[in-house]
Amino acid sequence: MSQLRRWETVLLALLLFFVLGWSAFNYGGRYLHAQTIVQVAAAALLLNVTWLLWRYQRARLVPDFPLLLVGLFWLLALALSWIFSVNQLASLEEVLRLAMYMALTLSVYLALRLQKDPERATYFVLSGIVVLGCLMVAMGWWLRSDGQALSGTFYRTNDLAGYLLLLVPLSLHLGLQARHMRARLYYWLAFTYLLAALVMTNSRSSWLAGGIAVCMVMLFNRSAFRQRAVWLVFAAGGLLAGILVLLNLELILPRLQTLLDLSIFKESAARWRMDLLLAAWDIFRDDPLVGTGPNTYAKVLPAYQQTAGYYSINPHNYYLQTLAEVGVLGFLALGLWISQGLRSLWRQPNPFSLGVLGALSASLIHIAFDIDWSVSAIPILFFVLLGLGLVPLETASSAQSEPEPADSLSEPAIKPGQQRVTAVTLAFVAVLLGLIPLLNLASAQAYARGAQALESQDYEAALPLLERARRLAPWPSARHYYSLGRCWQALEESETAYQMALRAIELDAYNGEYYGFASGLLLQKNQTAEALALLLRRQTLNPYRYPVYYTQLGDVYLNQMDQPQQALKTYLQGAAAFPPEQLARYERYLPQHRYEVFNLYQKLAAVYTQLNQLPEAQQWQVQAQQLVRSGVRDLYVQTGYPYPVAALKAYWDAVPQHLKNPAHRFDSLHPEAPMIPPPPWPVRFEQLRFVEVERDLNAARLRYAMPRQEAQSAWILLEDRLVGSAQGWHLVSRQVIEP
Predict the structure, then answer these.
(1) What pLDDT is recorded for position 267?
(2) Rounded to an integer, what is the distance from CA 362 to the centroid of its chain?
(3) CA separation for the pair 446, 448 (Å, rounded)
(4) Which is it for strands 689-695 and 715-725: parallel, antiparallel or unpaired?
(5) Is the Cα torsion angle 621, 627, 629, 634 positive or negative in sign?
(6) Would the pTM of this model clear 0.85, i.e. be above it?
(7) 356 burial via Cβ count (<10 Å: 0-12, 13-18, 19+)
(8) Among residues of the chain, what percentage have pLDDT more than 90?
(9) Where are the alpha helices (DSSP H) in 587-715?
(10) What's the pLDDT tens digit per position in 34-77?
(11) Chain-centre distance of CA 721, in angstroms?
(12) CB contact burial 132-141 (16+ within 10 A = b; e otherwise)
């Protein structure tokens, strides 16, 4: 008879803390490469635990896991929803993430049950988690700039707040449970430090959730407050936290005031979130049984938007998102899993269970208001803490008995057949959890290289890379087929390109980009009716997504079908869907909308001119020019010119100075761009007439007419290209289009 060897315990600890640390350090594990590394490490942890169960004949511990049946039921509900998902690749990724989280809970539970002293091992892991959290916050203070809320290694304040919500109640409980003054002081300092950091995130919903959780933990440990020393330490910690908050009061006070006077409900963000919640409810009503599939809210949302701009990858309420994505069955499974977990913690299988219960309660409250579980580091910590809280203390008799090695002559704990089935099943699950994310990452890397070659018009290189990405993908991807279609189109294989476009639509029926590509191929073959049907369906599924969808649909009516009245109706619908007064509210997130609406206004002016309704044409021309000259600072711009037209205006405003002093350098020109000489006569920015504009996140193309010197009625058509960065927008090139 023997116990776990030291290196076996160390390996378990290293794998666990690597999963916890890497996910929190790397942007909260939001991005694919970090998620893949974490998923592989979690799979390795489960595989290691499986080997130890086999080696020491302890597979009987698996049926003891209190969340085994409800966890399997939850996975079954997710799998059923995946079968009927509107985007099975996105759903598969989410199912694998949730399976990885559940596997972490099981792995932690089993790993600690294998220890000779589970209580001591659990205490060690919990202490390490608190230390890790303090390190992440310390890096956050170091990365923080003056006047900014604390975001840490997550680089988003609300994400860090969701992470801290799990640590603040836990550190408080450990401090109240500590038996020695040195340990008590350490945990109280950690609690104070983490609490101040939580306040500094400026996340109002996390303040409420954290306050509730702290009160819960204090209630659970009310007997500890009979000691005077506890009150003294508690008061000292509160004073220290208060000092840290007071030092940053000018940052916190405005947010606190909106919470106290309830003006939070008057903010535009409140209406935005309400629209997201209503959309989730509408999605559920249309697919009440199994939903649209895990991780498909962002795919389906455009079909349920009621106004422009209100878009998000999730509804900021995990419960309503679950109801929409996996239906009643999945929602019931989640509810049973949560209730079983909380009930098991309430039974206090170990001295730390109530602290874990308080921490998990804070997170369960907060996910009703924010996107915590969309950031991998938070659910990873949540599920690990759950496993720690479920570990039961061994009885006196069982604590004295040690696990048996596989080669022991003693009778095994369970039958060899059951032992083998349990080990093989867990090993198979671990391999799947590690292999599928690796395939997905390899596919994504091949696709990135193929897409880059495609944008560089190197189609011969792009095609094999895109095909390799498609073959490596664990499930067919609409994006792969769309890019392959573009490649085949460039190689003048229009029929193959069209089949690829149809396959992309089949895999992701809500993505308007694929409809536009397929309709363009049909128009090349003069199949106008089929192209029109695709564009009409796209408009139905994306009524408030992009103004250009209305422009392209109207162009078919106008140019291919010679129906100016129907084109006019379509353009007017687009103008009504994207009113100018709404653009500034969300333009920082969708800056291209202003430029697409400008082009839409230009189309309206052209149609009214064709219909000989000149006053209306003039009205839309004026509105178009006014619209494109306005804007808001782009989200990533820190200094310099805030948006493209502002940089262009600065250039033309500086022309008189340049004419007086030819050595003058325009500050609106990119430092690495060649000199763009102005005309030898003064031109005011107000004299320019914009003709066609387009932009994406950090690049823009502006085509405009400039009056000639000799005749104000004669024009020169120019096209400027600009790029944006943290230092603002700058001109990089100019081309004379006419004459």
Answers:
(1) 46
(2) 21
(3) 5
(4) unpaired
(5) negative
(6) yes
(7) buried
(8) 70
(9) 592-610, 614-628, 644-653, 655-660
(10) 999 999 999 999 999 999 999 988 888 999 999 999 999 999 99
(11) 31
(12) bbbebbeebe
Q: Which residue ranges does the chain devote to CATH 3.10.450?
A: 644-738
Tell how far CA 688 is from the center of its chain: 41
On the 0-12 / 13-18 / 19+ scale of CB atoms within 10 A, 677 is exposed
Report DSSP letters for 648-681, one per residue.
Answer: HHHHHHTHHHHHH-TT---TTB-TTSPP-PPPSS
Per-residue model confidence as pLDDT tens digits over 135-164: 999 988 777 655 567 888 888 889 999 999
CB 205 within 8 A of CB 211: no
What span, in angstroms and rounded, lies between the C-alpha atoms of 669 and 134? 45
Task: Give the number of other CB atoms < 10 A from CB of residue 59.
Answer: 23
The candidate with the shortest Cα–Cα distance to 549, out of 303, 379, 261, 731, is: 303
Task: Determine the Cα–Cα distance for residues 151 and 160; give it in Å rounded to an integer.
Answer: 6
CATH topology of domain 644-738: Nuclear Transport Factor 2; Chain: A, (3.10.450)
Quote the tokens at residue 140: 């956050």
Mean pLDDT of 443-470: 95
Phi-psi region of 582 (alpha: psi -120 to 50; beta: other; left: phi over 0): alpha
Sheet of 728-738: strands edge to edge?
Answer: 689-695, 699-707, 715-725, 728-738
The pLDDT, as a whole number, for residue 412 is 44
Cα-Cα end-to-end distance for the chain: 93
Environment class of 573 (CB within 10 Å of its CB; exposed 0-12, middle 13-18, buried 19+): middle
Q: Where are the alpha helices (DSSP H) in 347-395?
A: 353-366, 377-390
With vertex at residue 605, the alpha carbon angle to CA 599 and CA 606, rounded to the nearest 5 degrees, is 90
More confident residue, 410 or 522: 522
Phi/psi of residue 705, each to 5°? -105, 140
